[in-house]
Specification:
- Belongs to the bacterial solute-binding protein 5 family.
- Keywords: Signal.
- By secondary structure, this protein is of the alpha+beta class.
- The protein is built from 17 helices and 21 strands.
- It folds into 3 domains: 28-39 and 237-314 and 534-566, Periplasmic binding protein-like II (D-Maltodextrin-Binding Protein, domain 2); 68-235, Dipeptide-binding Protein, Domain 1 (Dipeptide-binding Protein, domain 1); 317-532, Dipeptide-binding Protein, domain 3.
- The chain has helices at 2-24, 30-34, 63-66, 121-132, 152-161, 166-170, 199-203, 213-221, 275-283, 333-342, 345-353, 384-391, 413-426, 438-447, 466-474, 491-501, 506-523, and strands at residues 36-40, 71-73, 80-82, 85-90, 96-101, 177-184, 187-192, 238-244, 248-253, 266-270, 289-291, 308-313, 317-323, 357-359, 397-403, 430-436, 454-460, 526-532, 534-539, 542-543, 559-560.
């Protein structure tokens, strides 16, 4: 009887807690969903400015709708499609790029900003100089003590100007571009230090969005430049109406959009759920599209096959295990090869990705224009007997750090680390796993106190150019940085990578990148594990989904199929 009373009390308490949570959770107004679409995704790493997000981390789809770039990549190729640019030309010496801009493009008219002019060269110059670390377009703060008695104003103002741009820092953009200037209101000239065939692909990446200089100047005058990154103003097909932190973003159609008009009035970006919760919401009809679903649960959708479809595409990403070359014993290439042979990557694909990924036998993902076709298996693929023969007598104990954050390239990092630990134990190597946060890792790298022999990590590229894929994670210029966690610096690799930038011939570039890739596969500074597909689930009525290798979709192309009347 006593046990029964306890059970009743516990159930009542749980019911009360769930009801309180339901009441506390903000509900999306029904009026917004009548002519709208709900897109369920995650809040992790959310930012209204992808430029400030950590390089190689997953960004939300929101910014693709708010902003435009100068260029986009056409049909997953190396071909550039002008967007805010109309055309471009490159000088004979390859060091000057002249970009001719589109006219008649309007910035968003929002509750917090009213533009007085159209998009022009000043906006491009400001946007590019900002990520280069040049703040010439912004006047300095008046530090006269009669104007500002509180020194915190000056501190805040200066810090807002010092926003970091991890992607552009990882590719050393400020060492590539010497200057950006406006020739006239619709012509921009970019001068390079040396010819660099990757520049335009970087300007087509998801990071290279264009801001309103007029908006920035207005904020700067109010000592509120930080608002540029949190209350966005762009030229895209949708604009922000409101944002409830970690819950949802409401986008409304931009009535002045310069391109084809979007068909759906309201877009609700639901940020409130995890992977399992998104699938539950989708099955309940609370999401029209669910991104990054829990892949182990996709089988649950079979009985709802008339209500949904799964959209997937190859991704420009790589999950890998990096060796720390700061550790003397790790510099033994035979040791690195033997560890590679001890890891069963096919088991990882099955257990972690449920076959929504492929074993990575190369560094460059298959969707890149530089990927080789029909390549042989990775030379140091799973071979437990060979691995055991080399490793067992050494009686090694290795420290493996794990970035404990779910990413597209690794949805279950701790579980993957345990699988690798188990494989290496079979080969006679003891592994100590330590889960670390990105913040802690950055701090350790800054202090040069990172104490790992191996680290489980990965990379997401912003475009299909191999330069933005391999250079950040393996070049000499990024040693002791959050991107190059192997601290590998190898002159022949640098030579091959730099050779690829010296020509605009696509075949010659691809050959140079493949030479660089062969050097990685031979020296094994990292063990490539998986290339992951980008997956989303959509309701049967939703049409027009065009998914990129970077996981984003263009909401402006979406519409609903008409329901058949019975």
């Amino acid at each position: 009887m006593f046990t029964r009373k306890i059970l009743v009390f516990v159930l009542a308490a749980l019911l009360s807690m769930l009801m309180n949570q339901a009441i506390a959770a903000p509900k999306i107004p029904e009026i917004l969903t009548r002519n709208g679409l709900i897109y369920c995704t995650h809040a992790g790493g959310f930012s209204f400015n992808p430029q400030t997000a950590d390089a190689g981390t997953s960004m939300n789809v929101v910014t693709e709708q708010i902003y435009n770039k100068l260029f986009e990549i056409k049909n997953n190729s190396a071909v550039l499609e002008p967007v805010l640019a109309q055309s471009y030309q490159i000088s004979e010496d390859g060091k000057t790029i002249t970009i001719y801009l589109r006219k008649g493009v309007k910035f968003h008219h929002t509750d917090w900003f009213t533009p007085t002019r159209d998009f022009n060269a000043d906006d491009v110059v400001f946007s590019l100089n900002r990520v280069l670390g040049h703040n010439m377009a912004l006047p300095t703060l008046d530090t006269n003590p009669t104007t500002y008695k509180n020194p915190q104003y000056q501190v805040f103002h200066e810090q807002a100007k010092k926003v970091r741009f991890p992607y552009f820092e990882s590719i050393k953009l400020n060492e590539k571009i010497e200057s950006v200037k406006a020739v006239n209101p619709y012509q921009v000239q970019i001068t390079l230090f040396e010819p660099d065939a990757s520049i335009l692909s970087h300007l087509a990446s998801q990071y290279a969005i264009i801001f309103s200089q007029e908006y920035a100047l207005q904020l700067n005058a109010d000592d509120n430049l930080v608002q540029l990154d949190i209350l966005p103003v762009g030229t895209g097909p949708y604009q922000v109406k409101n944002y409830f932190r970690n819950q949802y973003v409401r986008l409304v159609k931009n009535e002045d959009y310069w391109k084809k008009e979007a068909k759906i009035e309201n877009i609700i970006i639901d940020l409130s759920t995890d992977k399992t919760g998104r699938l539950v919401k989708f099955l309940n009809g609370e999401c029209h599209i669910a991104s990054y679903p829990e892949v182990s649960q996709l089988g649950l959708l079979k009985k709802y096959n008339e209500r949904y479809y799964i959209k997937s595409t190859e991704g420009m990403n790589l999950s890998y295990l990096a060796f720390n070359f700061e550790k003397p014993q790790i510099r033994d290439v035979d040791l690195r090869r033997a560890i590679s042979q001890a890891i069963d990557r096919n088991r990882i694909i099955s257990a972690i990705y449920h076959n929504t990924a492929t074993v990575a036998n190369n560094i460059i993902p298959n969707i890149s224009w530089a990927a080789t076709i029909n390549t042989p298996d990775f030379a140091y693929d799973y071979n437990l007997d060979k691995a055991r023969k080399y490793l067992q007598e050494k009686k090694l104990t290795l420290n493996m750090w794990v970035l404990n954050e779910e990413q597209v390239y690794n949805p279950s990092p701790i579980k993957m680390a345990e699988l690798i630990k188990s494989d290496l134990a079979e080969a006679g190597v003891k592994v100590k796993i330590r889960a670390v946060t990105r913040t802690y890792l950055i701090q350790q790298l800054r202090n040069r106190s990172e104490d790992y022999d191996m680290i489980l990590t990965g990379w997401l590229a912003g475009n299909l150019d191999p330069d933005s894929f391999m250079r950040p994670i393996l070049s000499c210029g990024t040693v002791n940085d959050i991107t190059n966690l192997s601290n590998w610096c190898y002159a022949p690799f640098e030579h091959a990578m730099n050779k690829a930038l010296s020509t605009s011939n696509l075949r010659a570039r691809a050959n140079a990148y493949n030479i660089a890739q062969e050097l990685i596969l031979a020296e094994v500074p990292i063990i490539p594990l998986a290339n992951v597909k980008r997956v989303l689930v959509a309701g049967a009525r939703v049409q027009g989904i065009e998914m990129t290798p970077f996981g984003s979709i263009n909401f402006a192309t979406l519409s609903y199929r008409k329901e058949n009347k019975k």
